């Protein structure tokens, strides 16, 4: 039970936590070692039935202290998953909340009651229910997962990307949907930016792990906008300094949300740093040059390119050459010069595929010319 509590506790930590990064680097070794240890312990118990007598698991107050630690780990995990559930309403998180609370209860019952009593039987019943709830949550997550590869294949028709397996979990899809509901402009924007970024990354020979990081981060890079008040996000006019500062916090908000739902370091860097600039004048962290991860530098170009070449309610899409001129002018200031050179070359060779099938429909019509200036500044 304590071992289970430790693993559930670790799963509740943000993916940028030092413990999680350390475990992730050694995950294969840890899994193999853990399975081997369990097998050896079971073999030892079968060969030497009395070996458990040498393990002081029933010695007071040690067993009470272990039980308290186990209960606290379960309750901490339940709290973290409850906060996540409030944010994205994903069934797996609800299952873990209830399962963790029930497991905490069973741990305490196991230590404080005698065998064959009513409470002892209650322990087994509650344990079975908690295990069932966790199993249902895992099945729900598995059934809600889907591959984004067909989407990218249909949109880009780039054979080199066909073998890239990108999984979209239910929680990730919920966040994508919430983002597009909050801001009509982002309808299709996330997908197009991810696709443009993938093509540029492939042209720059990034490995498959970085391609996956860029794809997953790109699909959800603007999720932090759901934390921005609608009156600011959709304001028909120029933003004030205070409003601009609120908008500029959306990468941080997205980062804070996604680090609790399984996004790893490079994926999180795409979400947090896609508005950083090569010369250090971007936001939110004022990173400069190579301090910005390469996937984030690539996505910065894709993000601006899509903003310029997409149809908006207040203007027609810019032609390719005009958009490329803006990208080239930003080389060395806004963008990584190497990424700009690769992107321009990709476009001029006619190899950049535009995902026409993902062109969004806009129902809201803005009449203010000032809105165009405000939007282009984004």
TrEMBL record:
Q: Where is the HD domain?
A: 186-308
* Highest rank taxon of the organism: Bacteria
> Sorted alphabetically, which PROSITE patterns does this protein's record hold?
HD, HD_GYP
> What keywords does the record list, in alphabetical order?
Hydrolase, Membrane, Transmembrane, Transmembrane helix
Q: Which InterPro entries has this protein been placed in?
A: HD/PDEase_dom (IPR003607), HD_domain (IPR006674), HD_GYP_dom (IPR037522), HDIG_dom (IPR006675)
Q: Name one GO molecular function term.
A: hydrolase activity
Q: Which spans are transmembrane here?
A: 30-49, 61-78, 90-109, 121-140
Locate the HD-GYP domain: which residues? 164-359
Question: What's this protein's name?
Answer: Phosphohydrolase
Annotated organism of origin: Paenibacillus flagellatus
């Amino acid at each position: 039970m304590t071992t289970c509590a430790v693993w559930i506790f670790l799963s509740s930590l943000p993916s940028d936590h030092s413990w999680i990064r350390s475990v992730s680097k050694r995950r294969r070794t840890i899994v193999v070692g853990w399975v081997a240890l369990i097998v050896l312990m079971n073999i030892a118990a079968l060969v030497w039935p009395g070996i458990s007598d040498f393990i002081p698991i029933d010695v007071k107050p040690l067993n009470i202290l272990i039980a308290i630690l186990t209960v606290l780990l379960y309750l901490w995990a339940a709290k973290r998953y409850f906060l996540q559930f409030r944010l994205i309403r994903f069934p797996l998180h609800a299952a873990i909340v209830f399962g963790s609370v029930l497991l905490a209860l069973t741990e305490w019952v196991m230590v404080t009651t005698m065998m064959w009593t009513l409470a002892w039987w209650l322990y087994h019943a509650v344990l079975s229910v908690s295990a069932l709830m966790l199993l249902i949550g895992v099945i729900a997550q598995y059934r809600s997962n889907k591959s984004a590869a067909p989407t990218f294949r249909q949109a880009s028709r780039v054979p080199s990307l066909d073998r890239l397996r990108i999984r979209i979990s239910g929680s990730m899809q919920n966040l994508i949907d919430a983002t597009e509901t909050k801001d009509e402009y982002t309808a299709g924007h996330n997908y197009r930016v991810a696709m443009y970024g993938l093509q540029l990354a492939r042209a720059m020979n990034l490995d498959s792990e970085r391609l996956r990081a860029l794809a997953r981060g790109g699909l959800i890079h603007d999720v932090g906008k759901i934390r921005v008040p609608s009156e600011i996000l959709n304001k028909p006019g120029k933003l004030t300094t205070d409003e601009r500062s609120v908008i500029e916090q959306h990468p941080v908000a997205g980062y804070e949300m996604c680090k609790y739902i399984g996004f790893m370091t490079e994926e999180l860097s795409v979400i947090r740093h896609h508005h950083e600039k090569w010369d250090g004048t971007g936001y939110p962290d004022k990173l400069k040059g190579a301090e910005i991860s390469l996937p984030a530098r690539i996505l910065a170009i894709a993000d601006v390119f899509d903003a310029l070449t997409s149809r908006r309610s207040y203007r027609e899409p810019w032609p390719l050459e005009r958009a490329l001129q803006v990208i080239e002018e930003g080389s060395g200031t806004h963008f990584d010069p190497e990424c700009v050179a690769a992107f321009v070359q990709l476009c001029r060779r006619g190899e950049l595929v535009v995902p026409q099938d993902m062109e969004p429909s806009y129902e809201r019509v803005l009449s203010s010319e000032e809105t165009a200036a405000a939007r282009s500044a984004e």
